[in-house]
From TrEMBL:
GO terms for cellular component: cytoplasm; nucleus. This is poly(ADP-ribose) glycohydrolase. It comes from the Eukaryota. Substrate binds at N503, Q517, Y558. Its EC number is 3.2.1.143. GO terms for biological process: ATP generation from poly-ADP-D-ribose; carbohydrate metabolic process; nucleotide-sugar metabolic process; regulation of DNA repair.
Amino acid sequence: MLKLFARFSTSKSRDICRWWLPRNTGGNKLQSFKFEVCLFDMSEPPQKKRKTILDFFCRKEKGNKKGPVDKKDPAPDSVMSNTETKPQPGSSNSGSNNRSSAVLDGGFDNTKAFYDKTNNAEADGKHFSGSSLNKSRSLDEGTTTKVEIDGRPSSSSWLEDRYSDKGATWRQNSQSSEHSDDEYNAPILSRSDSTDQPECDIPDHKPSQKQNDSLWKGVSLASLNRYPSCMPPLPPLKHHQDHQVLFKVPHAYSPEHPPTPHPYHYTDKWDSFHVRMPCSPQSEFPVNNKIKKRWEVIEGVYKKAILGPVELSDAICKYNTRLKADKNFGILYNFCFDVLSDGERKQFFEVVLPKIIRLALNLPNLITQPIALMKRDRNRSLTLSQQQIACLLANAFLCTFPRRNARGKAAEYHNYPSINFSNLYDGNPTYQPVKSEKLKCIFHYFKRVTTKMPTGVVTFTRQCIEKFPNWKNLETSLTDIHVSAEGTIEDDGDGLLQVDFANRYLGGGVLGMGAVQEEIRFLICPEMIVCRLFTECLEKNESIIMRGCERFSNYSGYANKFKWSDDFVDKTERDHWGRLYTSVVAIDALIIREHRQQFKIGSVLREVNKILG
């Protein structure tokens, strides 16, 4: 590694310089300057292998038996000891090595690789792929370019080239076209979901399955308390000021019939404290210079048969002026034309989609009372039936919710996650293949619920803690803990309180490019997505608990290699409200830029306060 230094300074009698530049100044006083160029040859700092939690366990024997500690490694009494490095005596650049090691520990020393990729791409005259751009975002999150935001080149004409012929064929078959093939121009750039997180050296594979001989610490997994044996008796379900129930109570769970919506007739509130529903009489939409009820427009659009993705995009654009059928549905077109087989595509558009449309248009009959928003700094619960959730998600699939497409700071719902699926449909499939896998999860969910509607109940609770405890003076002992680097939360946490390491905007990039822990959980349990409709972003003293969400899918891979696998039948028991004994708490995680930052007192206190909330 070569370092080049250039220095300018005022000359002195003891200086020896190579170039003298005399300059006359006032008073006939001569002043000289020198210019030095020094070239040094420095060695590369040593690369340090990042330690993982599995490395920590490998220093011990299996189970909870104490074993000898490798003398070459520091004692595991502190996690900090794994990342500390001492300077080598007699080394002139030991300080540099320490700084480099700290960067390597944090996993952000990608600068050299990033510039190598940049130079290679410029030399080849090629654009970056979406994955490369996502990895580079960790270097400077605030200065992403327009191509980084969308993950596709601005001059791309892939949509026109690939789908103009197929679109024409579908339009000819449906006989409901109002556009020509020439309208399929290159997609415009639009900002991706702001809740996507940058990828920072995250794994791309699903954790290994937990085995009987897996390494673990603490107490055995079987010794932990689990639902329902550790739960107190559940009180009768009632509607009160801080707990809204959207169906008739008292209610007893029936596997044959879903709960009855309450009240019988639709009631509406069009204000900033409730979800603005598309079926509200006050939701209006301009059509041909005339103001019409949005719901009348939506009902009229879906009176025609939707025979393919082109017709579906045209229908969605009829009541969403921000969306363009030839520019904002690239992922949807690719998924339907290139990913689905002819039989799968025919089944979806002829069997499943008509049921989704009927379910969505049944909104005024299933959601008959206004849904209160779960705003910040207030404890509140909302209980819905799984049928009501399916109805709300069907409307999100058709992008019917008003005022939820604008994402600027001046937008009414800028503090809420996005809910309409339009961002999931938009993009270039070449650079965003993970979105096709997400659509598989969503399509599979709707196939399941439209074939046999589940009859259970789900509760969403926002918890806010007003005063944090003084942890230093507490004498209460911590409960038992089981620690293992193998297995997954959704597979091995049955009967336990499971954690969603969330974005403060719940669901993170589930409708965008994200596909890590939180997004995957929302995809295999799509009922969790509905909380994005009414949950404001989390504060440092808040958490969200989701009770009773059903799992519908299996998956493989992680991050960019996430893939939908197959159907999953959730056999978890239910309580007498009808909720599955599955509780997931969402606590938004910090973005850690340097490995050791997470072990500082402030970071640790923030996390335990979150857990307490």
